[in-house]
Amino acid sequence: MTTAPSTVPVLIHTDGGCKPNPGPGGWGAVLRYGSHVREMCGGERESTTNNRMELMAPIMALETLNRPSTVHLFTDSAYVRGGITSWMTGWERNGWRTSTKQPVKNVDLWKRLKQACERHELEWFWVKGHSGVPDNELADQLATRGLREAMRV
Q: Where does the secretion signal sit in this chain (predicted)?
């Protein structure tokens, strides 16, 4: 039996990055539901890319939700938002190949993100990075913390 998602949205802001790119990376997410706030971060000590870290942030945030939810997900990555809202349907139809017949990069994470989205009602929003949106700024700080913590391991 599938439970209907809550009508009060979970607000999620995500960010990810590497220093340098490619290089070690980190991701961060801020989840808000009513008065509840959860901050998450993680990272990769080994070489990764900005795009992989930008994908990991919403994956980890969505995988954390323990019941079907209405989610408003904010990202400053046009790559993530474009991929999930526009390009993925064509990629799947083409056997995970781009319109130019090249293999889709980060296909493992795109498939994981798709699966993480399946039980939720999602609306995706793009926000300009480093533009003063408080939870986007916090997600950026969490991504930096995730990178630093990964480097200490």
A: none
pLDDT digits 0-9 by tens, 109-143: 999 999 999 999 999 999 998 899 999 999 999 99
- Decide if 105 is inside a domain: yes
Asked about 130 being catalytic, the answer comes back as yes
Q: How many CB atoms lie within 10 A of CB 152?
A: 7
140 catalytic per annotation: yes
Q: CATH code at 109?
A: 3.30.420.10
135 included as an active-site residue: no
Cα–Cα distance, 66 to 79 (Å, whole number): 27
Question: The whole model's pTM is what?
Answer: 0.94
Q: How many CB atoms lie under 10 A from the CB of residue 95?
A: 9
β-sheet bridge partners, residue 25: 18, 44
Establish whether 15 is an annotated binding residue.
yes
Q: At what angle do helices 50-64 and 107-117 cross, to 10 degrees?
A: 20
Q: Is residue 68 part of a domain?
A: yes
